[in-house]
Design brief:
- The chain is of the alpha/beta class and 61 residues long.
- The chain has two helices and three strands; from the N terminus they run E-H-E-H-E.
- It has helices spanning 14-26, 37-46; strands at 6-10, 30-34, 51-54.
- Strands 2-1-3 form a three-stranded parallel β-sheet, sandwiched between helices.
- Strand 1, helix 1 (14-26) and strand 2 (30-34) form a beta-alpha-beta unit.
- It is flat and about 35 Å long.
- 10% of the residues are buried.
- The mean pLDDT is 93.
């Protein structure tokens, strides 16, 4: 992949974050993980992402 696209994965389940990171990294994507909404918002403030994959039920926000 010539241009590396970045993806933010937000999920409170560690196993799901790890699974998606492994799958997407193997496809050539740059993956950032967040365990909750607050952490995700902090990441978004620091960097632009091409895609955000998120759990729709997060406990903190």
């Amino acid at each position: 992949m010539a241009d590396t696209h970045s993806i933010l994965v937000v999920d409170d389940e560690l196993s799901m974050r790890q699974f998606l990171e492994m799958l997407l990294s193997q496809k050539g994507y740059q993956v950032t993980l967040a365990k909750n909404g607050k952490q995700a918002l902090g990441s978004i403030k620091q960097k632009k992402y091409d895609l955000v994959l998120t759990d729709i039920r997060l406990d903190d926000i």
